[in-house]
């Protein structure tokens, strides 16, 4: 896959390029639902916003304008319902941050003997309204049992009140437990059987569980140092000196911090050692520095492999994280000493050719390694990896590459200085002006003055000497670039000055800041490998790592298989897609994940009666712009839209720097012409330069948050090429932006989708994008989309909000605030989307399917507890006793499992790119021992090796079978609006990602960076306490809200 969805930086290219992973949508609704509007609002005044004025919403093909849903109008007509929904106080905690009260035990029965703890009509114990000041996260209580409530929440019991739920017959509503201790994720409901069976290979290597007696020891090193490298050096020295004499000949594994593990006991319970470290020889004749450390090793616990065995056999519900961690540390010990460790990966210039990335960076090859519990037992997941390192260049050469010009020709500008300082801060350099003496320093900044102006005191009397004189007098070194600043090393109080030309960057420093587009492209070229090559490299890595000769693995009795895991898979069939009956082809069966629009018309063509075009490209003449618009209008018409051939006003050319003025003036001129006829402007077509900087983002912000108009951007290169395929793709995007549908599933119209077609069902997608590393204060952005048509489920409305920096929990799913007139008022994204679904379909959703993107395993409990509780409260705030059944599924793309064809030469088992066929699903062997998860490769590969999506069900009241959820998910992947291909992740999650990305452009310029990094990079194992991307809910207090989307933009797929 060349398009890494998660790190792709969007430009206008993203608007309309043909290579996107997209697709199409939309069927006729049965006549009784056609109008949408506010039909059937008899029950529950909470569904009707008080000053509602909209004329209906999401009916196919455009619908009415204006939903009238300002924030003040969220609340129901009656006082807010006390005790909304299930789930306890929405405090956030790791795995046990909630006292569980009587909230019961979720699916596996929690800590109650006998399993199910679900009464037939469950009682819910609910907190009353909490104020907007959110509760800070509580530390997890100790293992004292799940019912012990932390003292901090002792104030809650008197506020709890009982609430019983009236259920639909046959729907089992579960209580949301108040504590993750009592929570169990749903067990696997059996294996799927639908589809054509086949065998695939996975990059998992079976690891035999050792039968050793593992011991854990606490390590205290004084004086304390923050560097793991120094800690490891101390421990290595200790083992070299004392392994035979004091450690009972044991070879311990060390995590570089506070823990040491051994296979069997050491001959003491606690012991102190004195260790002396001597610095490396830096080439100077001076005596090398000696540092003395006191090391205390003390028995902490025995690591329990017995429970790990039970867990792998499915006889225990919780993964024993400590035991897994020990095995992981043991297997990382040897590569850590050989290579450069970064997260869970290891890199080295010896593992593959270095490739220049531009601006002083290069890529290093490496491999990812992680031990995972699976159905086949323990598995070592190995994958190839590449990342950016700083080239070990002389600093002058690095700066020349960074600025991309001959730096001696003209002085540095302020912008140059800022760029250099940003790139070099924290980088380690060694000096080159002292012969063999290569002393190392870390750069803390740049001097504000030029080198020739710098002086410093040389004695107690305050005698000053210039840096230029000092270097000549002391080392006989003549500084050439005296007009340049010096590097500042050491601390700010006692800075040292080093001229750039005497410094060289030390090898092996990873570049962790944001890459630019060219660097990303170059890195993707390096990482993009065909499946056969990747499989070969993985096998080569496993052989090279020689786990059978790893003395640590041997010491601990861990044996790793040399072969890729062979896994049973199934290929799910593609769904039939419905197109309009007036086209030559009324329906279509995709072939190998793709199809086209030839002889087909959109199932619900939208209407564009009034449109205008603005051209920001100097290269495109007015006549070319007119010709392009005519061709595009024709394509939209041929594809099934009602599209006026002529614009309201002739196309106009403008300069990018005048974007705001031009947009507003042209919009005003068009509206002056249309308003007397009671007409609206439906679409703005924009021609952009190929490289357009911030223009694309500014334009989207103005159109969507100020003017209330949808726009379609087209790059200059596409305007000149004007290919039919390109125009057809753009037509698909325009249609959904104006409220149409491109295609729908035949099974949706004929009501044959299990657990969707039988009763009104709403499908949500949610994602959070975080700022890039190095962006210290930008907010994270959450987006939630929800289907607005039933039974078709192809049209999604989207909402976005800003929240605290790197906060993973979505804060605005449900919220309450005080209104001076109405008292406590509730609202939030879920409530607004439920109301708009009701207005569009005339029905209340009785079932919710929630696809949540970008959550790492370490955050599963937190995200589920917090967000499921918010869904419950949003539902109950609309109407007492309104609790639709919920299925909550996490979608993960940032994992390292890859699937390969069993026989690469068998043309029937691979697509054109050599990847496994779209629809390939795996739910055995490499999946979770007991929980409901599966890997699905729903798309056809284009370049590189396809990455299957991993779906993990965290909550399921709808009782999905494996086949039902896998087929639904696969079929939805064929309804993506932006192209005629099935996509790699389920469209609601994909749309949420697009919407969150779009909203980054809405931020004020000083907080916006034009891209983002998607969530889910945090903790790796469930026991990791929630990961670094999660903060307490209260952290969002100071975040500046995004400008509001205009009502008519909100209710269409503006983000497409």
Quick structural gist:
With 1056 residues, the protein is an alpha+beta fold. Helix content is 22%, strand content 23%. Strands 3, 23, 33, 34, 35, 38, 39, 40, 41, 42, 43 and 44 form a 12-stranded mixed β-sheet that branches. Strands 4, 10, 11, 12, 13, 14 and 22 form a 7-stranded antiparallel β-sheet that branches.
Outline the structure in words:
A hairpin with an 8-residue loop joins strand 24 (577-578) and strand 25 (587-588). The strands form 10 sheets. Strands 3, 23, 33, 34, 35, 38, 39, 40, 41, 42, 43 and 44 form a 12-stranded mixed sheet that branches. Strands 4, 10, 11, 12, 13, 14 and 22 form a 7-stranded antiparallel sheet that branches. The protein has a 5-stranded antiparallel sheet with strand order 6-7-5-9-8. Mean pLDDT is 82; it is low at 1-45, 49-171 and 1006-1037. It is α+β, with helices and mostly antiparallel strands and 1056 residues long. Helix 11 (622-638) packs across helix 15, helix 12 packs parallel to helix 13 and helix 17 (829-841) crosses helix 18. It contains 21 helices and 44 strands.
Strand content: 15-25%
Number of continuous helical runs: 21
Backbone structural class: alpha+beta
N-C termini distance: 20 Å
What is the gyration radius calculated from CA atoms?
A: 31 Å
User: Which blocks of ≥5 consecutive residues have pLDDT under 50?
Assistant: 1-45, 49-171, 1006-1037
* Global mean pLDDT: 82
The percentage helix is 10-25%
E-strand count: 44
Overall morphology:
globular
The biggest beta sheet is recorded as:
12 strands, mixed
């Amino acid at each position: 896959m060349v398009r890494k969805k998660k790190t792709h930086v969007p430009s206008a290219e993203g608007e309309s390029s043909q290579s996107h992973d997209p697709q199409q949508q939309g069927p006729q609704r049965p006549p009784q639902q056609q109008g949408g509007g506010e039909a059937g609002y008899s029950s529950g005044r909470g569904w009707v916003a008080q000053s509602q004025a909209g004329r209906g919403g999401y009916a196919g093909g455009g619908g009415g304008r204006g939903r009238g849903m300002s924030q003040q109008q969220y609340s129901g007509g009656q006082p807010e319902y006390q005790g909304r929904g299930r789930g306890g106080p929405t405090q956030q905690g790791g795995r046990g941050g909630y006292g569980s009260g009587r909230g019961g035990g979720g699916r596996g029965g929690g800590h109650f003997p006998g399993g199910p703890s679900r009464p037939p009509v469950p009682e819910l114990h609910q907190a009353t309204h909490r104020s907007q000041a959110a509760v800070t996260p509580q530390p997890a209580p100790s293992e004292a049992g799940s019912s012990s409530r932390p003292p901090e929440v002792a104030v809650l019991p008197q506020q709890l009140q009982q609430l019983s739920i009236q259920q639909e017959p046959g729907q089992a509503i579960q209580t949301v437990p108040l504590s993750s201790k009592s929570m169990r994720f749903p067990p696997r409901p059996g294996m799927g059987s639908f589809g054509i069976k086949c065998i695939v290979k996975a990059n998992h290597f079976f690891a035999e569980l050792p039968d050793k007696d593992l011991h854990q020891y606490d390590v205290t090193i004084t004086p304390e140092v923050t560097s793991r490298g120094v800690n490891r050096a101390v421990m290595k020295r200790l083992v070299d000196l004392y392994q035979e004499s004091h450690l009972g000949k044991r070879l311990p594994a060390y995590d570089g911090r506070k823990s040491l593990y051994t296979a069997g006991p050491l001959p003491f319970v606690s012991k102190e050692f004195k260790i002396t470290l001597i610095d490396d020889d830096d080439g100077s004749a001076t005596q090398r520095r000696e540092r003395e450390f006191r090391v205390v090793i003390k028995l902490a616990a025995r690591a329990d492999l017995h429970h790990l065995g039970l867990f792998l056999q499915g006889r225990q519900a919780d993964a024993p994280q400590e035991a897994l961690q020990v095995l992981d540390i043991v297997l990382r010990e040897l590569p850590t000493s050989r290579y450069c460790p970064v997260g869970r990966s290891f890199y080295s210039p010896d593992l593959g050719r270095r490739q220049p990335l531009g601006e002083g960076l290069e890529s290093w090859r490496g491999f990812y390694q992680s031990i995972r519990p699976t159905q086949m037992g323990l598995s070592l997941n190995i994958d190839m990896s590449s990342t950016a390192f700083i080239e070990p260049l002389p600093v002058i050469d690095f700066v020349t590459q960074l600025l991309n010009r001959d730096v001696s020709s003209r002085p540095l500008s302020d912008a140059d200085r800022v760029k250099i300082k940003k790139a070099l801060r924290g980088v380690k350099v060694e000096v080159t002006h002292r012969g063999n003496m290569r002393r190392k320093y870390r750069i803390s900044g740049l001097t504000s003055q030029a080198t020739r102006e710098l002086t410093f005191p040389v004695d107690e009397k305050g005698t000053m000497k210039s840096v230029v004189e000092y270097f000549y007098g002391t080392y006989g070194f003549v500084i050439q670039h005296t007009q340049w600043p010096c590097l500042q090393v050491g601390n700010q109080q006692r800075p040292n000055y080093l001229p750039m030309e005497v410094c060289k960057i030390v090898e092996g420093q990873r570049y962790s800041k944001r890459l630019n587009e060219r660097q990303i492209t170059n890195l993707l070229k390096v990482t993009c490998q065909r499946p056969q090559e990747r499989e070969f490299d993985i096998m080569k890595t496993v052989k090279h790592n020689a786990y059978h000769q790893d003395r640590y693995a041997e010491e601990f009795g861990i044996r790793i298989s040399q072969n890729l895991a062979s896994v049973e898979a199934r290929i799910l069939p593609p769904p039939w897609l419905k197109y309009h009956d007036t086209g030559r082809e009324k329906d279509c069966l995709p072939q190998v994940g793709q199809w086209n629009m030839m002889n087909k018309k959109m199932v619900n063509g939208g209407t564009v009666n009034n449109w205008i075009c603005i051209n920001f490209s100097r290269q495109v003449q007015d006549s070319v712009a007119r010709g392009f618009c005519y061709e595009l209008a024709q394509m939209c018409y041929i594809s099934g839209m009602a599209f006026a051939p002529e614009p309201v006003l002739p196309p106009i050319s403008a300069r990018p720097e005048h974007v705001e003025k031009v947009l507003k003036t042209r919009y005003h001129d068009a509206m002056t012409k249309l308003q007397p006829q009671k007409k609206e402007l439906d679409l703005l077509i924009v021609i952009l330069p190929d490289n357009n900087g911030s223009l694309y983002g500014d334009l989207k912000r103005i159109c969507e948050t100020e003017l209330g108009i949808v726009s379609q951007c087209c790059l200059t290169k596409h305007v000149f090429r004007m290919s039919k395929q390109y125009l057809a793709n753009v037509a698909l995007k325009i249609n959904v932006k104006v409220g149409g549908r491109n295609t729908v599933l035949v099974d949706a119209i004929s009501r044959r989708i299990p657990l969707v077609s039988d009763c009104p069902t709403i499908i949500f997608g949610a994602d959070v994008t975080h700022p890039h590393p190095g962006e210290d204060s930008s907010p994270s952005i959450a987006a939630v989309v929800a289907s607005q048509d039933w039974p078709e489920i192809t049209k999604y409305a989207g909402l976005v909000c800003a929240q605290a920096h790197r906060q993973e929990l979505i804060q605005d799913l449900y919220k309450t605030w005080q209104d001076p007139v109405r008292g406590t008022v509730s609202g939030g994204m879920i409530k607004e989307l439920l109301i708009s679904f009701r207005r569009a379909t005339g029905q209340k959703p009785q079932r919710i399917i929630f696809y949540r993107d970008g959550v790492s395993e370490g955050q599963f409990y937190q995200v589920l507890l917090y967000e499921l509780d918010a869904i419950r409260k949003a539902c109950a705030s609309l109407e007492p006793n309104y609790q639709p059944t919920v299925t909550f599924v996490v979608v993960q793309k940032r994992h390292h499992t890859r699937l390969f064809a069993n026989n690469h030469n068998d043309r029937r088992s691979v697509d054109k790119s050599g990847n496994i066929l779209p629809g390939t699903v795996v739910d055995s062997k490499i999946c979770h021992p007991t929980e409901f998860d599966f890997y699905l490769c729903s798309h056809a590969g284009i370049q590189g090796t396809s990455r299957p999506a991993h779906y993990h069900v965290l909550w399921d009241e709808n009782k999905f079978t494996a086949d039902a959820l896998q087929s639904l998910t696969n079929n939805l992947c064929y309804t993506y609006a932006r192209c005629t291909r099935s996509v790699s992740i389920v469209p609601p999650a994909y749309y949420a990602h697009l919407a969150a990305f779009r909203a980054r452009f809405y931020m004020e310029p000083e907080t916006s960076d034009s891209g983002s990094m998607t969530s889910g990079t945090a903790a790796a194992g469930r026991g990791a306490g929630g990961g670094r991307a999660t903060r307490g809910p209260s952290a969002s207090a100071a975040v500046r809200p995004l400008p509001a989307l205009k009502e008519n933009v909100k209710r269409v797929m503006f983000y497409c």
